[in-house]
Queue: 3 jobs
Job 1
Amino acid sequence: MASGQLSRAEALASSGCRHACHVMLYSDTKTQLFGRIPIKHIILMQMRFDGLLGFPGGLVNPSKETLEAGLSRELSEELGVAIPVSIEDHVDSCYAPASSSSSSPHLITHFYVKKMEEEQIREVERAAASTATDHGQEVLGMVRVPLYTTKGGGGLACFLSHSFIGNARSQLVDSLLRLNLVAPKELHKALTHSLKIQTQTAQDLQAALELTEAKRKHT
């Protein structure tokens, strides 16, 4: 078992820990971008209140509800629609990165993957923007993961260069490989380009910081 990973039983038996459940909802699609770039799959993530990308879900209390019941409750609040999640959808449990569990007690994350029909995914998107309790507050909006690469290098590489909460990026990458949603060679290429984008982003941020500093000194 990989470092930090736990079996479901070990996770539930851990004392003094908080638990969070999140799910990757996805579907197949035959649609094409600009009528020529196959999209192939729809994967939903969300822009969180803290500006980070993550999967739908949240904190649950195993002493009062099952992990799946807690996750379904969180999904109703964030997506505005009831989505049943079962033990069969469970992928892994692990300790969250230190940056995500800096406060005591430690946080254990449980990750699920659920395949849906394309129309069901579209209904989730509609409900999330119109009836979800958390829309505009804890959740700033749902986003689709671009699994393609455009001629100019945009798409998946740019998406992966954004900031993710906790281990959400590694959960996404692992799922893409495990479910064969993106070929390993293409994913490696996207990640390599993503690193270059982050370098350019750091340079842009430094330039913006210097501009702000100059303005601040003159006010």
Note: The mean pLDDT is 92.
Job 2
Amino acid sequence: MAEELILLDFWPSMFGIRVRIALAEKGLKYEYRDEDLSNKSPLLLQMNPVHKKIPVLVHNGKSVCESTIIVEYIDEVWHDKSPLLPSDPYQRSQARFWVDFIDKKLYDAGRRTWRTTGEEQETAKKEIIEILKVLEEQLGDKPFFGGESLGIVDVSLIGYSCWFYAYETLGNFSIGAECPKIIGWAERCSNKESFSKTLPDSKKVFGFVQELRKKSGLE
């Protein structure tokens, strides 16, 4: 029986991007439905009645919610190709730690670089550099966080890279100057077809952020 996969998502979402990349890495075909988050579809509200958020993966009529849980689900169900989590339990725990670090730290700091001004924005800029420097230290001299091949940490972090241009332009700072290893890592990831075909254009994301700023009265 053919697998029915539907992804409810929103194109600039760094959380949705990680799911799209996981699906691409596994070579899975799916139906993509871009949600209007100001007018959520009945299917989204039905499939994620608790949080009512994207992304949601609908697999043969059953929903899986929360991006990291979805990525792990994809990796477990389609385990025969491009494993994203290490087989060793300790290494797997470490990978999960860093995904959790990214989710708890990076989204909020990044958001404040474009949603705030003045002292609050300056604090956010310092925070995002500090967070990325910690991640650089973890990356070390490896090509990817997963080592020689991509892993769940790479998949979880890369969605932020297409937001870097907006963070830098609106915050008037340079991630590349402060964290060159992260930029080099992002470029290596982007050389992979599953990433290059999935990641939105940075300038398009910047345009989207500008619209959000206008609606918030920041421009």
Note: The two ends are 52 Å apart (CA to CA).
Job 3
Amino acid sequence: MGLGFAIGVFGVLILFHAAYATIQYRGLLKITEEEFSGPPMNVVAELLLGLFFCMWAALAVPGKFLSIHPDSEENRIVSLPANLDFMIFNHRGKVFPGQMDLKLRH
């Protein structure tokens, strides 16, 4: 867990605080019987700052990149056809049933 992850958590906390501040602001408007026209500017600034931190963390903290080359040792071949045009690798799609009878109802 590095600096990028901590910045992402901080961004999420800022977003939660902005949501809480908006709820408080709406409650205050109900008490004073004023109409809600939008959040205050400090909440909008918090939203933009939290969005920036979360986006930066999402781009700075990627997962481990895996090889997509068919001759890589990380890939385990399930079946190798004779013409090598279509190679099938292990993937998450094998958890779905093979024959799915999807029919459109008219």
Note: DSSP finds two helices and two strands in the chain.
